[in-house]
Every structure is written in structure tokens, then in C-alpha cells.
Design goal:
Oligomer: single chain
Strand content: 25-35%
Distance between the termini: 53 Å
Number of domains: 2
Strand order of the largest sheet: 5-2-1-6-7-9-10
Largest sheet: 7 strands, mixed
Number of strands: 17
Structural class: alpha/beta
Shape: elongated
CATH class of the largest domain: Alpha Beta
CATH architecture of the largest domain: 3-Layer(aba) Sandwich
Order of helices and strands: EHEEEHEHEHEEHEEHEHEEHEEEEH
Number of helices: 9
CATH topology of the largest domain: Rossmann fold
Helix content: 25-40%
């Protein structure tokens, strides 16, 4: 079976590598244009492009696939390459460009998407982040037949994956990438036998995973400790979660929720009446902070601007704070 692959980041590279190992002929790879990255802001090829070039695959990097859009010359060149490839199917994983109708209709089997959620929950750009942030118990991979909607196509294969209490976006991403790579190979093997069938997505349970915005990094201490802790894991490593202390922006890297019973222990402290964000306890294990709904968050790892990530004990040896001080939202 001849395949066109469209993807950009590491999640997509894992899928491309799986297809390559399984022996599928990759006739063309589409990926985003090189972007500035790193301290020197030098142009850097995507993870998918790097893998493709290392394995002698043809690569195209159009800025758009819309023939009537802003970059019609890019779209026309991509169309010519896709037509020449004469692929049976296009596999799409975190590509980053909208596929117009002409792309969806070109391969014999259409375009299949590897989506990192249990559709129709978490359609959209950031399904892994939003699943952790929402406190979902499970997520998974949906192999979907693409249509012109936003992750609205028929489901071909679905497999669940539990979300562990200590999962962060990077750890869950890596597990889902491996699962997606295995499942897309399975889907193509079934398709080669002519028995791949699609199931319409349910009309109930639709949610949208909006792209993560940097403005979301500010900690809202009026929310519960559980919500803040989930956000720390969901927004790791970027954009992270930040708050201000003594006029300095501090990145909160890891934390744990303290039992609600502890609130009574602190109830006689003057600091607990100063409001959410107040520091209740400081020691080598962490910094206990009052959050909304009478909940307490123990911050165990922090990072100063321009500094390195440290555990609480290391951080406190270079940044003295006192019980009763207060973290502020940015």
C-alpha cells in the first residue's frame, strides 16, 4: 500500500517511524515549514522532516494547501506532488494545516487521522493537555476517517488508555504516540483486507480542546488545589504555571494536594485568614499554600526566571520566604 504522510511534531514522527518499520511505501511526506527555534532562533526542521530525510523520503513543506488561499503557489506545488505520488491513502497526525476537499478526495482510501482522544471528547488542537486539566480518568487514540469538519469524521479504530494520577502532558504524549503508531499500522493492515468500517461519532459528549494560550499559565489561587495541581501537570513543560512572590515571577513545576483534614490544623494561623495564595508552611518537603474551597497545595518543585528547576529545599536555600507571605496571580 502506497502512503502519503502529513505530520510535524514528535507525536507524528513516532507514527511515521511505525509505518516505515511495518514496510509501507511512503511516497511523500508533508510537514510544516522550518521554524526558528532555540536560543539562536535558527531555522529548525520538524521531527517528521528530520526522520523523512534520514530515510530518503520525499518531503514537501507547503505553507498552505488552499489553491485559492494566501499561498496558491505552495498549494499548487503540493497538489502536483500529491498527484504524482498516486497514493492509496494519506495518514495525518498533528500536521497543523487544514486539508481542503481536494486533498481529502485525492487518495483512493481518503485521509485517516491519528487523534489523541476518545472522540467526540476533546476535538481540536490540545486534547492531551485538556484531558489532564479536566481530570479525566482515561483518554486514548481514535483513528478517524477525515472530513471537512474539525475532527468530526467517522471513527475507524478506538483504543483507551488510563490517565495516571502523576501523568503530565509529556508522559501521556509519549504513551499515546506509541499507541497511535501501533494503531495506524493495524488500521492500514485491516484496510488492505477491505474490512475497515467507520462508525459515526456520537452526538453526545462533544467537547473542544482549545489550543493552549500563554495567558493560561497564571495560577488562580481561588480555584481548588486539585484544579491547580492538574494544571501544573497539563501545562508542563510549556507554558507552565506561574505566580508572583515578592515581585518576582516564579514557575511552579510540581505539587501535590494535601488532605483537606490539614485545613483544621492551620485554622488558628493568622495567615490562613489572609486569603487564597497565603503560605501556611515552609519546609524541605514543600511550601503549603491556601487555595480555594479551603484546599491546600504543597509546591514541591519551583523555578525562578532564568534559573533551573529545583526541589523546594534547594529553592528555599536561595530564596527566603516566610509563613504568612502570599503568592499573587499574574
Amino acid at each position: 500500500m502506497k502512503v502519503i504522510f502529513a505530520g510535524t511534531p514528535e507525536f507524528a514522527r513516532v507514527a511515521l517511524a511505525s509505518l516505515h518499520r511495518a514496510g509501507f511505501q511512503i511516497a511523500l511526506v508533508l510537514t510544516q515549514p522550518d521554524r526558528p527555534a532555540g536560543r539562536g532562533m535558527k531555522l529548525q526542521a520538524s521531527a517528521v522532516k528530520q526522520f523523512a530525510l534520514e530515510h530518503g523520503m520525499q518531503v514537501a513543506q507547503p505553507r498552505s494547501l488552499r489553491l485559492d488561499g494566501k499561498y496558491p503557489e505552495d498549494a499548487a506545488a503540493a497538489k502536483a506532488a500529491i498527484d504524482v505520488a498516486q497514493a492509496d491513502v494519506m495518514i495525518v497526525a498533528a500536521y497543523g494545516l487544514i486539508l481542503p476537499r481536494w486533498v481529502l478526495d485525492t487518495p483512493r482510501l481518503g485521509c485517516l487521522n491519528i487523534h489523541a482522544s476518545l472522540l467526540p471528547r476533546w476535538r481540536g488542537a490540545a486534547p492531551i493537555h485538556r484531558a489532564i486539566e479536566a481530570g479525566d480518568d482515561e483518554t486514548g487514540i481514535t483513528i478517524m476517517q477525515m472530513d471537512t469538519g474539525l475532527d468530526t469524521g467517522g471513527m475507524l479504530i478506538v483504543e483507551k488508555l488510563p490517565i495516571n494520577a502523576d501523568d503530565t502532558t509529556p508522559t501521556l504524549h509519549d504513551k499515546l504516540a506509541v499507541l497511535g503508531g501501533r494503531m495506524i499500522v493495524e488500521a492500514l493492515e485491516i484496510a488492505a483486507c477491505g474490512s475497515l468500517t467507520r462508525t459515526p461519532q456520537p452526538a453526545q459528549g462533544i467537547t473542544y480542546a482549545a489550543k493552549i494560550d500563554k495567558s493560561e499559565s497564571a495560577v488562580n489561587w481561588q480555584t481548588s488545589a486539585e484544579q491547580i495541581e492538574r494544571r501544573l501537570r497539563a501545562f508542563a513543560p510549556s507554558p507552565g504555571c506561574t505566580a508572583r512572590l515578592r515581585g518576582e515571577t516564579i514557575k511552579l513545576c510540581a505539587a501535590q494536594v494535601i488532605s483537606s483534614d490539614c485545613y483544621e490544623k492551620y485554622s488558628n494561623q493568622r495567615s490562613i485568614h489572609a486569603g487564597e495564595g497565603s503560605i501556611l508552611l515552609i519546609n524541605e518537603q514543600g511550601i503549603d499554600v491556601l487555595c480555594g474551597q479551603h484546599s491546600i497545595l504543597r509546591i514541591t518543585e519551583l523555578q525562578r526566571a532564568g534559573g533551573k528547576r529545583m526541589n523546594a529545599g534547594e529553592f528555599l536555600r536561595g530564596f527566603e520566604i516566610e509563613v504568612g507571605e502570599r503568592f499573587e496571580s499574574i
